[in-house]
Amino acid sequence: MAVYRRGTRHRFLLVLLVLSSITVITVDVRGGGGGAMESVRRAARDAFAPVQSAADEVINPVGDFFGGLFRYGHIKAENARLRRQLADARGKANGASSAERERDELLALQKLTFAGDVPTVAARVVATSPSNFQLTVEIDKGLPTGIEKGMPVVTGAGLVGRVIAVSQERATVLLITDPAFNVGIRLSGSGDVGVARGNGVRQPLPVDLVDVGTKVTGGEVVVTSGLQGSVFPAGIPVGKVRSAKVQPGRLQQEVSIDPLVDLSRLDFIKVLLWQPKADTP
Amino acid sequence: MNNARAKVPLILLTFLVVELTVLDHLRVFGAGPDVMLLLAVVAGIVGGPRVGALFGFAAGIVLDLFLETPMGLSALVFCIVGYAVGNIQGGVLRAAWWIPVVTTFVASVAGVLLYALTATVVGQPGLVTPHLFVVAAVVGVFNAVVSPFALRLVRWAIADIERAERAYA
Predict the structure, then answer these.
(1) Residue B166 lies in a domain
(2) Domain CATH code at residue B27
């Protein structure tokens, strides 16, 4: 009898905890990322920021040391490769200036305003996501610098993601490879538009809504479309076409792109202080 | 009992700091370990269903503060995992050393899969993919490897609670 009663008590506790969890989930989902849960989260992150910084001070040198030990050969080879690339790049840089002018003309022709005139905030990536199911990074700048939810994040190479949470000390950036990420894109060759979506870590991004008749070439650069209502300004490079196939009987091409930015090695990034126009739906 | 009141939050905080700082740099095949889930599993092994569920809930809700997935999702999954492990393993008192290790592996894999399924139900897209099994395997293996250490820590933290429970029963 005693054993039976004990079992019931345990089950009661479990039911209580499960119901509390579901209540919290409901409140958070219904609140739509605002409200009480959001402020609790912000407070927790700000409180944890100094701990994280302190821990990184300790861990990074140790990690670098062991990383250096185990990867000595790799680093040596990489060094040689980088030297070679630098020499190549110096040579190419001379030819690049004319290509750059050409690009500017093309952008002007397509009425694309590249995000060059948007004010930016530079920030450092301090942590990756603690979850395996969410592709985000934490950056070391927050609300005081003017960062807001929804702002685009880039590096010199191209689009990194979008700010999805901000506190006083930190901001969280959703990477373009996260399955919850969508971006309107334009193929630089044909000028046709489509929608690229994240497909998980180190996976290429599938592009939807590309017309069967559109000519898509491998390696073609894809930029943000910036169409009306878009959450990104136009002309930010997103990726390079990896493959394009037309399956018989389909109404759209199967296009996939590789991100231009190496998302596994992010260090410094820039947040564009840009919000979609207020009049968009 | 008084002792446990200080030790349990300490353990929780230690695991959280490890999860958010040290393990942040540890990625295998694009997946990282999950020591908060480990905490729920180990608490279930050491303390039975009650302690497992409570530890799981606490570990989950603390982790949720640092995630963008809906608040309470990890708490829900971890408390179920802790309870289930406690029910299965709690009765075994002096088991062979490898039994908790295998239990941790199985429970961690199950926990990851349960998390992905629950998150999908709540409306998170793109979680149930082939990559999910890679994640489950990485989390399972890592948690199993460090489980003997975690077991000792949790046993230390809840020694007083255990004694009280046994006296009660």
Answers:
(1) no
(2) 1.10.1760.20
